[in-house]
Amino acid sequence: MKVIIGLNTAWNLVNFRAGLIRALVAHGHEVVAVAPQDDYASQLRGLGCRFVPMPMDNQGTHPVRDVLLFWRFLKLFLRERPDVYLGYTVKPNVYGSLAAHLLGVKVINNIAGLGAVFIHDGWLVKLVRVLYRVALRKSTKVFFQNADDRDLFIASGLVRAQVTGLIPGSGIDLIRFVPMPLRVDGALGFRFLLIARMLRDKGLLEYVEAAQILRTRWPQVECCLLGFLDVQNPAAISSEQMKEWVRQGHVNYLGVSDDVRPHIADADCVVLPSYREGTPRTLLEAAAMGRPIVTTDAVGCREVVDDGHNGFLCKVRNATDLADKMEKMLGLSVDQRLEMGAYGRKKMELEFDEQLVIDQYLVALSGISAQ
Fold this sequence. Notes:
Helix content: 40-55%
Oligomer: single chain
Number of strands: 13
Distance between the termini: 13 Å
CATH topology of the largest domain: Rossmann fold
Shape: globular
Number of helices: 14
Low-confidence stretches: none
Mean pLDDT: 93
Order of helices and strands: EHHEEHEHEHHEHEEHEHEHEHEEHHH
Structural class: alpha/beta
Strand order of the largest sheet: 3-2-1-4-5-6-7
CATH class of the largest domain: Alpha Beta
């Protein structure tokens, strides 16, 4: 079949959907990847798919731009005549699905976390819910990355329960992300690492405050940050704010990287105090590489960590509790942290293997093909 996969960035396609794209191509499907043009788009050809650039105002709420996006999807589907559309992220899920349904194209959606718009309240939340309800009404399959999000959509009448499915995030490539030995310095030079887009909703403010608390007691501890700054998002941390945090001496900003593995290998513990997630890929990567984790007892995050076994859960939006859990991690012996890392790796193998995600997509596509 001809499959179009739509996301809000080519970076997302390359970093999170490469395994799925390769598997679809290997099973004989023609894959067309659709996203705004960026520096990562050139890498898509190597995955065996064709790339079509699609301009998209990802965070904007201007109705004219959104109508234009719907029109672009409509023209794309008329030109390409796909059998199936795979939608990810809010706007491709909404406007891509609406266009596909209008033309009779089968749709499989992936709700990869509800994002900032569902954390807060107001007219925008109400509008997005209405759009989701209409966009998902005729979908063949709607995958969710955690049970809380699926239950919320079903209870709100946004999706029919019978078409929903649960997948373990985008899954993790267990061959690419392998356990690495821990550093054995103990608290001396102990490194915490947060990997995420630099957004307030990822718990950045709490992390910086916790770092300040922690370093008054453990001055040799490093609290590092890795990820994109100045992203197009109302919750984005600015470059100026990051420079001020670094100047104060409590955190160290490492910039961005196309390969997070060396950074995870250099870390003793990976931290993500996010307010809400689908299933955070960075925590899957950390656990697969045998790193203990500190994260929030929040939707999406708690699914990755069994509290006390492969990490610790802290309260949401609570810098003091975050600092306490980070200090608790510091107090563990190397053997205890190794045991946590081994538990996390085993959890990834049993519950979050990328192949589990790919298999569910292949089954869904097979069902559509048989119709």
